[in-house]
Amino acid sequence: MKKTQIRKLLLQLLIFIVILGLAVLFSLLLARVDDDNNPFAMALFILAVAVIARLTDGYAWGITASLAGTFCVNYMFTRPFWQFNVTYPGYPLTFAAMLIVSILISALTTQIKKQEQLRAEMEAEKLRADLLRALAHDIRTPLAAITGAASVLQEQDLPPAEQKEMAAGISRDADWLIRITENLLSVTRVAGENASIRKGEEVLEEIVGSAVLKYRRMANALPVTVDAVSEIVTVPMDGTLIEQVLINLFDNVSAHADGATRIWLHIYPEEDKVSIYVEDNGPGLSLIMRRRLSEGTALLQTGLSDKQRHMGIGLSVCRAIIHAHGGTFYIENSMQHGGAKIGFSLPRKEENR
User: Fold this and answer.
1) What is the number of other CB atoms lying within 10 angstroms of the CB of residue 138?
2) Which end of the chain is more exposed for a tag (fewer CB within 10 A), N or C?
3) Which of 192, 181, 309 is nearest to 244 (CA)?
């Protein structure tokens, strides 16, 4: 058995012991209120079974808790106390009902957990399928442009100025392919079956500065104004992935915000989280588009020209990365600047798992 499996088994055993122990403790305390066949014990142990089933995997822990709970109620909290006795009239039916109810609750709770896991797996699979569909569209266009330009340069004797222009076009398309590849690699890190986010305490200002610097090197980059923060903000994160999120959000403005001339990055540090918003002075987002982007269905647009890129893949990658960090992703309109307002919040403290 692997070490991770052993640790998981020991953790679930600890949960089992602690929850049942708390049920016994509270039942003993409540027995001082009514020491005549403690009427609270049965409800407490049924609740304990439900909690154990919710926090553990499989049916075994919940069913075992059902049996243990039924025994404890009979042995400790039913007359004669500290004796196992089912001969009193009505006791067999009472304990049988408790056992059946406890097992049913355990089974239903476990089934709900499995359905939630299946739903999460289906959503992850849908995300992968949508991203692959968008990637196929976005990669085809620059590849065709690069191939066409290379063929022209090989077969025709063009003036130096035209050669330079075509070479610049090849460079732009190659840069776009690199960004697409980086997005794809980011998705594989957060959407795989054994995906894990390696977090470290990062200084947010450094991550933002690096993202802005890389974005400014891109073609058609817009000026970016970043809020000055009076304190050093540290956040547990994978710095490379969060930097990729910010670059995607900047690039999204360049690609979609027609007429936008500037980007603002606003930072709002709080005690338990930090919120970051990328805003522009473009036309903003319609209600339908905000809904589609929030639901991730913008990837499924049809009837688009092959010359159109950025079919929502950047925002889908951003959403996946932020959710993998335990954060929240936002898509709104900017009241301050008039354009789109897209951002996220990250917890400032690592959750104990």
Assistant:
1) 22
2) C
3) 181
Partners of 273 in the β-ladder: 347
User: What is the rounded distance in angstroms from the CA atom of residue 58 to the CA atom of residue 150?
Assistant: 58
Burial class, 323, CB count within 10 angstroms (exposed 0-12 / middle 13-18 / buried 19+): middle
Residue 89 near residue 148, CB atoms below 8 Å = no
One-letter identity of residue 223: P
Model confidence at 38: pLDDT above 60: yes
Q: What residue type is 39 in one-letter code? A: P
Q: From CA 329, how far away is CA 320, in angstroms rounded? A: 9
pLDDT category, 269, cuts 50, 70, 90? very high
User: Which CATH class for the 199-353 domain?
Assistant: alpha beta
What span, in angstroms and rounded, lies between the C-alpha atoms of 279 and 283?
A: 11
Q: What is the DSSP string of 102-135?
A: HHHHHHHHHHHHHHHHHHHHHHHHHHHHHHHHHH
